[in-house]
Design a protein that fits this description.
- This is C2H2-type domain-containing protein.
- The chain contains 15 helices and 24 strands.
- It is an alpha+beta fold.
- Strands 1, 2, 3, 4, 5 and 6 form a six-stranded antiparallel β-sheet that branches. The protein has a five-stranded mixed β-sheet with strand order 7-11-10-8-9, with helices on both faces. The chain has a four-stranded mixed β-sheet with strand order 16-15-14-21.
- The protein is flat and about 90 Å long.
- About 4% of the residues have low confidence.
Length: 621
């Protein structure tokens, strides 16, 4: 079924390119529908695919279908006109992300050719998009491995019949580091081998000739650098812990020397090469030695370093080695090439102890999640489960973060104003293509509820075809009125009883700050409900919106500062997300100046949206 769809799409594209179809727009729409159907089926089959070969075959088909879909959209007629803008690479090629079928993939994409005839010029344009994607990937990864797949349409004449097929050319998986010259890498690892293979394929008496450049698939994979180098000094902070053995090798085999130092430990001068047998005498690393290896890296944070795992063995054996992969520089701008060097971690506890705890006692670390225990027995029990479930470090809260506590105390107060609204619409008959009804809003009503003064609550409504414009004007005016309320706060006024409770030595000024020595009655903050400490500054909290009896209680100074009335007015519509939002959003976005922030479910449904008014404190949510 999929093969039949792809064959039909290839034939359709060929007809459209040469202009041999009289129903171009109808054929393009039908083709786009079939491409959408094919993408869904390919995603479903990818989830069920078990073998690597099957996954790679399906990914190749997915790349081709996405390219055909984009090419069909480009061929759609979108009206006439003059475009004076200069054509860029984005007009000639297009990037699409595709589903990855492999766990080690960071990102998989396809760059579709829209206008190019020559493969060399197509690949040159591809570099601009390729470079941006790799830079983004290297923001999170120290290094990645990348391979590309060039897809082209080839033709071969057999008598009076022309055979057409899609051929693919794959480049090798090559490493890219943060200091790699991307343009030089792309020319050497992508353009040169693909152009060479295309030339050799067509000159091999195969009879095939390149008819059309289709796409370039890009696979960005995870990569842990395993290639060491000659000797690199340990950072002084790590060296001072005396937890690592750094062999001063004069060759490019630091990995082998690090393993040798772990398998043949010495007490005196462990950094000297002469203390160990040559690594060539040690057979193949993990398998033949019944050996397991974990690799850790250093990440610079501020002035110090943090140790993190970068490679963890799947099966820990009796003879286990932990290695530290260090660099010759960390985040420094330098012309010197980035080099890596392996050292043996002799004592993992020494290396990690200060990083995770201020307790200087001996700790037993899990080398997978880096959680530590006081006793070896507890570590053994933990490791049995950790190796099955944890691929990362477990970070537990410290004593200050032991409990989750409510902190947004300002949410304890009711908002000053709430708007409840609803609208009604009628169906207007239409005879315009597929449209036969139009929903027309004809009436809107809203009720403003004030939480601190019921006399300020009111209801208004309006009927007419311009009801939504009326509602926008009402909300704009209401925002100005509410802003005036917030800009004109009332001073604090205490009753004699409240003055006595606060016991402020009859000081009647309106300043909120008083020293603790003058206060004897209030013992707890009425906002956070915590007791006052001797060094706390206690203040009188009051409601700024009420002129009389507005004292609320004694409070911490910090609590009082953050205990503010919100300037966001909630607007609650009946069935807003399902229906009313379609009428509201367009009007408030265009009729009232200010930004609209959306929290969408789909392009047509929204959980909520916030209207921020220009030159006004108030926002409607």
């Amino acid at each position: 079924m999929l093969a039949a769809i792809i064959t039909r799409m290839r034939a359709l594209l060929t007809l459209l390119v040469v202009g041999s179809t009289s129903r171009a727009n109808e054929d393009i729409k039908a083709g786009l529908r079939e491409c959408t159907l094919a993408v869904r089926r390919l995603h479903k089959e990818l989830k069920q695919a078990e073998t690597i070969g099957k996954k790679q075959h399906l990914l190749g088909q997915l790349r081709e279908v996405k390219s055909m879909s984009k090419q069909l959209k480009t061929l759609q007629k979108k009206g006439a006109g003059i475009d004076s803008r200069k054509e860029t690479a984005c007009n000639r090629i297009h990037w699409d992300d595709t589903t990855s079928a492999f766990d080690s993939r960071i990102r998989t994409g396809v760059i579709t050719n829209l206008k190019h005839k020559d493969p060399a010029s197509f690949l040159k344009d591809c570099f601009a998009i390729f470079k941006r994607r790799i830079i983004n990937a290297l923001k999170k990864e120290a290094a990645v491995k990348v391979n590309t797949v060039f897809g082209g349409e080839f033709v071969m004449a057999k008598g009076d019949r022309v055979q057409m097929e899609h051929k693919y050319f794959t480049t090798s998986n090559s490493a890219i580091y943060r200091d790699t010259d991307l343009e030089q890498w792309f020319n050497a690892k992508v353009i040169a081998p693909i152009v060479r293979e295309l030339s050799e394929f067509q000159e091999r008496d195969s009879g095939w000739a390149l008819n059309r450049v289709v796409n370039l698939g890009v696979n960005i994979n995870k990569f842990t650098p395993q290639v060491g180098s000659s000797y690199i000094k340990l950072p002084q902070q790590i060296k001072a812990k005396q937890a690592c053995i750094n062999v001063n090798n004069n060759d490019q085999a630091c990995f082998a020397w690090a393993l040798t130092s772990a398998m043949h430990p010495v007490e005196k001068d462990p950094q000297r090469m002469s203390k160990y047998p040559h690594y060539s005498e040690i057979p193949n690393v993990e398998k033949q030695n019944n050996l397991s290896i974990n690799v850790y890296i250093l990440e610079k944070r501020g002035r110090g370093f943090v140790t993190l795992p970068t490679y963890l063995t799947n099966y820990k054996k009796d003879q286990h080695v932990n290695l530290l992969l260090i660099q010759n520089r960390y985040g420094d701008v330098d012309d010197e090439p980035l080099r890596y060097h392996y050292v043996w971690i002799k004592d993992l506890s020494r290396l990690l102890s200060a990083q995770l705890s201020k307790n200087h006692m001996k700790k037993h670390f899990c080398d997978r999640c880096l959680h530590y225990f006081s006793f070896m027995e507890r570590l053994s029990k933990h490791y049995a489960d950790c190796k099955n479930v944890n691929d990362c470090k477990v970070r537990l809260p410290n004593e200050d973060q032991e409990y989750l506590k409510f902190k947004n105390f300002k949410n304890k107060e009711k908002v000053p104003f709430v708007v409840y609204a609803d609208l009604e619409s009628v169906l207007k008959q239409m005879n315009s293509g597929n449209k036969y009804q139009h929903h027309l809003p004809t009436a809107v009503g809203y009720y403003v509820m004030c939480s601190y003064d019921p006399s300020l609550s009111f209801y208004r409504s309006y009927r007419g075809e311009d009801c939504m414009s009326w509602f926008d004007r009402e909300m704009n005016q209401f925002a100005e009125n509410v802003e005036t309320v917030f800009l004109c706060p009332f001073d604090i006024k205490l009753t004699p009883t409240q003055e006595t409770d606060f016991n402020n030595n009859n000081n009647n000024n309106n300043n909120c700050l008083y020293s603790l020595q003058k206060i004897t009655q209030a013992t707890h903050c009425h906002i956070c409900e915590q007791p006052f400490k001797p060094d706390d500054v206690k203040v009188r909290d009051h409601n700024h919106l009420i002129p009389e009896n507005n004292y609320r209680g004694a409070a911490h100074n910090s609590c009082n500062i953050n205990y503010k009335d919100g300037v966001v007015v909630p607007v609650i519509f009946h069935n807003r997300s399902g229906y009313d939002a379609n009428f509201i959003l367009e009007n408030i976005a265009n009729d009232i100046p200010g930004r609209v922030d959306l929290l969408p479910i789909t392009k047509e449904k929204y959980i909520s949206f916030t209207k921020n008014l220009d030159q006004n404190l108030i926002s409607f949510h």
